[in-house]
Amino acid sequence: MYIGTPYGGQSGMKAPIVSGITIGYLRVLDSKYGIWSQVTASGGYRIGNVTFTGNRGAKGSWWTVSRGVVTCQDRSGFRVVNNSQPVTAGQGMYMARSMGCSSTSASGNTGYGLVGQLRN
Fold first, then answer.
1. Residue of 12, 37, 44, 82 with fewest CB within 10 Å of its CB?
2. 83 neighbors 53 (Cβ within 8 angstroms)
């Protein structure tokens, strides 16, 4: 799941605001990536108040460079609550990774191989 777009605003126009999104209660059967998601804006898009809750990913053996199952970059209002995703043990993976985000929280998440809830 990717929230945002690689295209940005049109010439002379403001890029839109994407806000108030909840991704919840999905069961992802793909064991290659599971519930891996990234919330990042490019091209001037403004994204805020995104919540991942109650999602379940299939067991996989993978990890990401960001060290987050769900990664947020340069956004405001990011919550990751009660999700489950096993990952490759020993890779330093967290359920949520905040890279320059404000108002972030993670709690109640589980998964084999995770080292914690939230990495800032």
1. 12
2. yes
